[in-house]
Specification:
Chain A is about 60% helix and about 0% strand. Chain A is mainly α and about 575 residues long. Chain A has one domain (about 55-175, about 285-575). In chain A, the strands form 2 sheets. Chain A has a two-stranded antiparallel ribbon. A two-stranded antiparallel sheet of chain A has the order 4-5. The two termini of chain A are about 35 Å apart. With about 200 residues, chain B is mainly alpha-helical. Chain B folds into 2 domains: about 5-50; about 55-200, no CATH class. Helices cover about 45% and strands about 10% of the residues of chain B. Chain B is built from 6 helices and 7 strands; from the N terminus they run ββααββαβααββα. Chain B has a 3-stranded antiparallel sheet with strand order 5-7-6. In chain B, strands 1-2 form a two-stranded antiparallel sheet. In chain B, strands 3-4 form a two-stranded antiparallel sheet. In chain B, β1 and β2 (about 10) form a beta hairpin. Chain B is elongated, with a radius of gyration of 26 Å. In chain B, about 50% of the residues are buried. Classes of the chains: A mainly alpha (about 575), B mainly alpha (about 200). Chains A and B meet through α1, α2, β1, α3 and α6 of A and β2, α1, β4, α3 and β5 of B.
């Protein structure tokens, strides 16, 4: 328990100054870092022809975002499909199939990092070290840029002083926001973390695999081939950018990605560092600190409750091992250097934040922790993915404002701007979208057992399918990895979930923010619902719970809840 | 064709007109993040922590014997055994079993592991630490628990003709305690311990 408290406490403590720093980054205030960063930015603006001072309306911002993603997507697909013809391929690795290349490109483009290929074996150094690392920086920066633009819209845009009612509002410059987030926030943090991780033993080399002579010659292994590579550079941004795609197959359970309890602490903090910093930044950026207080309280409540549940879950024995050894916690799929508490903590935080990296195998979690991990992905705004998580929180906030307004008979408005029919229609779409995509795809796939490729029977088989689509839609990327998921069916359907789960939850809120920004600001503050009050905080929590219970409780019953009951009744193993 | 609403501000853009800007921006990103960042981060690690950066490799008489961080398979009676692995301890193929607690297949594997440990060490099932019958997440977990090491000492003492106290002392030397007293678990490094046994 002490270890968990230390990790969570340190994360909040470090996120506080980072949030302040990020506020200055996105409000473009002068900063001592300008000496280093401004010259690099000027070079990029010069070669690209971007005018950093040119503001964009929500349509221009949205179109720039879509276009940039299209360009990145085409580049990613081309590199993966033709990697065998490109340089940096010493092991003569072949091309990916069209469906696997498509899935991998979209998966990294959407900040998901769901991996249907097998780690270092199927990708060249160019694909892994250059293409994927680039996407691991740019995609969180894109999410963060969209989040910042929406925040600006919520208070009428950067030109709210001069613009008239109904006029388009300036939400900032998309390219400037992306480059500032990448260069001033993510790259410095990743450089520091990469070095700290190497000090703990994460490899950092361009050399190929090492060939060792095993100690026990009788054990049947003549030569031990130990793959290495520029691991720490990738692991650092994988953790910091809510990415999750690791260098090796089993991600941060592999001792080369996560060698010590200290590296584990650093990486666990990195899971939530930037997402928490965004919470602190949001209120300051728009001069409404009550927004930060509200978001932090709601998110921390969910986060701590769910951590407690999964830590309890993994301290229980694994039913399949019961009676076969001394009593002990669930160590299946876990590493001795960590033990179950830090593994359960990681599993909870990585699914809350849309990161998706793992330090233990989620398929082998006890049912309650399995339930917690998918709940984290479905809520998707407990800290959440970088940028996208806070956008999801704003969506819940708008819905809560609307419902609270109706309940007490006031016009629902946030920061003086009304939530009206047009906005509510768009919010309604965002409520039904996850249920339609995740449950729809799960139902179709489960109906054709030949498609699924499960490693587990019964309730858990349904969970494996549900988890895969939830992970794709939530842009998480973790998996119940026993699934044999490199097939055209899995690749193509996951791409559908990935795209719908990334772009609609960014573009619709951006439009809503754009519409609301242009509205006349109500000056009568005394009538507004207070964000800082405990009543409204409970309302937001209730809204989040009700929406997710209505959509997904039945599917949990034929998943982890059913599995848990089956184990408890003693019917899991007929002997 | 931009729709200007005020100086320094565009309400809407045509995507076709922005294509070149977007493409060059993407290429700059590839150079900055994929090229510069990866190179600087990797070379910095290699320069400051060369041992760790190269993979914490163990050399003996100029021969590479393994890495302190990666488990090796051990089957002989004279050696401490590593945790069970679903990937035969192959670093090129790391991964866990991905079997659920409700899966009869996992129970069958665990029963087999448990019975073979029981027969090998001559102990009851209830005396086997749980890490010896559960497969690690990576399949190359380099550590076992202190209990799992203690369990194996009598067998190794017999096979090597050594006193149990000597082996216990060696185990203690290769045991790491939780960092700062709170982070992680106590653990014994199997590979370095076995190498030390051979070198006695």
């Amino acid at each position: 328990m002490l270890e968990i408290s230390i990790i969570l406490g340190l994360a909040v403590l470090l996120a506080w100054p980072l949030g302040h720093y990020m506020t200055s980054v996105y409000s473009a205030r002068p900063h001592w870092g300008d000496v280093v960063f401004s010259p690099v930015e000027r070079v990029i603006y010069k070669v690209t022809g971007i005018n950093p001072d040119q503001g964009m309306g929500w349509k221009a911002y949205a179109k720039s975002l879509v276009l940039f993603n299209l360009v990145l997507g085409v580049i990613a697909f081309a590199v993966l499909k033709f990697q065998h013809l490109l340089p940096m391929n010493p092991d003569n690795i072949g091309p990916l199939s069209w469906d696997l290349a498509l899935h991998t490109a979209v998966s990294f483009l959407t900040n998901t990092n769901q991996q249907h290929y097998s780690g270092q074996a199927q990708l060249t150094y160019l694909s892994q070290g250059v293409l994927i690392v680039t996407l691991q920086f740019l995609t969180p920066a894109i999410g963060l840029a969209a989040c910042v633009a929406i925040l600006r819209g919520m208070v009428g845009g950067l030109n709210s002083e001069t613009a008239k009612e109904g006029e388009a509002r300036n939400l900032g410059n998309f390219y400037t926001d992306v480059i500032r987030g990448t260069l001033r926030v993510l790259i410095p943090l990743a450089l520091l973390l990469a070095l700290l991780l190497t000090s703990q033993g994460v490899p950092s080399t361009f050399s190929g695999a090492a060939m060792a002579t095993p100690v026990d010659a009788q054990a049947g292994l003549e030569v031990q081939e130990i793959p290495r590579g520029p691991v720490s550079a990738m692991v650092a941004i994988k953790q910091l950018g809510t990415n999750g795609g690791g260098f090796f197959g089993p991600n941060s359970s592999n001792p080369y990605e996560n060698p010590t309890p200290i590296s584990n602490m650093l990486q666990t903090i990195s899971l939530i560092l930037v997402p928490i910093a965004i919470v602190f930044m949001a209120g300051r950026l728009i001069g409404r600190k009550s927004l930060s207080t509200l978001a932090f309280t709601v998110m921390a409540t969910f986060s701590v409750t769910m951590v407690a549940a999964s830590v309890y879950s993994e301290r229980q024995e694994n039913a399949a091992l019961a009676g076969l050894s001394a009593a002990g916690p669930n160590m299946e799929g876990k590493e001795v250097r960590f033990g179950t508490d830090p593994s359960a903590l990681w599993a909870t935080l990585t699914t809350q934040t849309s990161n998706g990296s793992v330090n233990s195998m989620h398929d082998s979690l006890n049912p309650m922790a399995g339930l917690v991990t998918r709940a984290g992905m479905l809520i998707n705004s407990t800290w959440g993915g970088i940028g996208s998580g806070f956008i999801n929180f704003i969506v819940y906030l708008w819905i809560a404002i609307f419902i609270a307004g109706l309940m007490i008979g006031r016009t629902p408005e946030l920061f003086g701007r009304k939530v009206e029919t047009k906005e509510i229609k768009a919010l309604g779409m965002l409520i039904v979208l996850p249920a339609m995509v995740i449950l729809g795809l799960t139902a179709i796939t489960v109906a054709f057992p030949a498609l699924t490729g499960n490693s587990n029977p019964g309730f858990h088989a349904v969970s494996q399918v549900f988890y895969e689509y939830t992970s794709a839609f939530a842009n998480n990327g973790s998996g119940f990895e026993g699934l044999n998921d490199d097939s055209p069916w899995w690749n193509v359907t996951a791409v559908v979930a990935l795209i719908l789960g990334r772009y609609l939850p960014i573009l619709l809120p951006l439009a809503i923010a754009g519409w609301m920004a242009s509205k006349r600001e109500t000056k009568a503050k005394e009538n507004a619902i207070k964000l800082s009050g405990a009543t409204f905080c409970v309302t937001v929590i209730a809204v989040i719970l009700i929406i997710n219970f209505l959509s997904f409780l039945p599917s949990a019953v034929i998943g982890p809840i059913g599995e848990g009951l089956e184990i408890a009744s003693g019917n899991a193993f007929v002997e | 064709m931009n729709t200007h609403t005020s100086p320094g501000f565009v309400e809407n853009v045509r995507m076709s007109g922005e294509f070149k800007k977007s493409a060059i921006f993407a290429l700059s990103g590839l150079i900055l993040c994929g090229g510069l960042y990866t190179t600087v981060a990797t070379l910095a690690g290699l320069g400051v922590f060369p041992e760790q950066a190269r993979g914490s490799l163990i050399y003996q008489d100029n021969e590479l014997r393994g890495s302190t961080l990666i488990a090796q398979p051990f089957t002989g009676d004279t050696y401490f055994h590593s945790r069970p692995s679903s990937v035969a301890h192959l670093p090129t193929d790391t991964g866990g079993s991905n079997l659920a607690p409700s899966n009869p297949e996992l129970r069958a594997i665990a029963r087999q592991l448990s019975q073979s440990v029981s027969a090998r060490e001559g102990v009851a099932l209830a005396d086997i630490p749980v890490d010896m019958i559960s497969m690690s997440g990576s399949g190359v977990d380099p550590h076992i628990s202190e209990q799992a090491a203690a369990l194996q000492i009598p067998r190794i003492a017999r096979a090597r003709g050594l006193a149990q106290e000597n082996i216990a002392a060696l185990v203690a030397q290769h045991t790491a305690t939780p960092s700062f007293g709170v982070l992680g678990q106590s653990r014994v490094n199997v590979l370095t311990l076995n190498l030390a046994l051979d070198n006695q």
